[in-house]
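Bumping my old thread because nobody answered last time. Still need a sequence for this structure:
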């Protein structure tokens, strides 16, 4: 039986700084695409949203990420507001929503294998609880 070590926010922040970002950079893109498929988003909002999940991204990382998704046709930007309060907002395109649907299936498949030990342990615990009842 494997031992599950919870990943604290402090350990997650350390992993951000220790060069592991490339392991989950695609997940960050998917997270951004997910939110853009639900409602219009803007860069600072996504920096804050990802920060709530323990990811520390700078504007110098977020805005090129948004521009890259737009250049691939997955997001479309438009100007919202006027004057000094205007901002660039992004929405998922039809291609972006389609790509997200495909990615969700592929990520689920990979994660089911990645977390197989956790899921087996949870299943065993549930069976034990049912037997006690």
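Sorry it took so long. Here it is:
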């Amino acid at each position: 039986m494997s031992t599950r070590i919870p990943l604290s926010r402090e350990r997650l922040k350390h992993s951000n700084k220790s060069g592991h970002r490339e392991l989950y950079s695609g997940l960050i893109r998917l997270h951004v695409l997910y939110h853009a498929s639900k409602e219009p988003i803007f860069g600072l909002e996504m920096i804050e949203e990802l920060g709530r999940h323990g990811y520390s991204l700078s504007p110098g990382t977020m805005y090129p990420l948004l521009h890259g998704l737009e250049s691939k046709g997955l997001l479309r930007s438009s100007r919202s507001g006027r004057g000094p309060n205007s901002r660039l907002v992004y929405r998922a395109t039809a291609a972006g929503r389609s790509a997200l649907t495909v990615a969700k299936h592929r990520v689920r498949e990979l994660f089911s294998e990645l977390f197989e030990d956790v899921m087996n342990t949870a299943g065993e615990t549930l069976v034990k609880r049912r037997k006690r009842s």
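The first helix runs from residue 9 to 17. Let me know if any region looks off to you.
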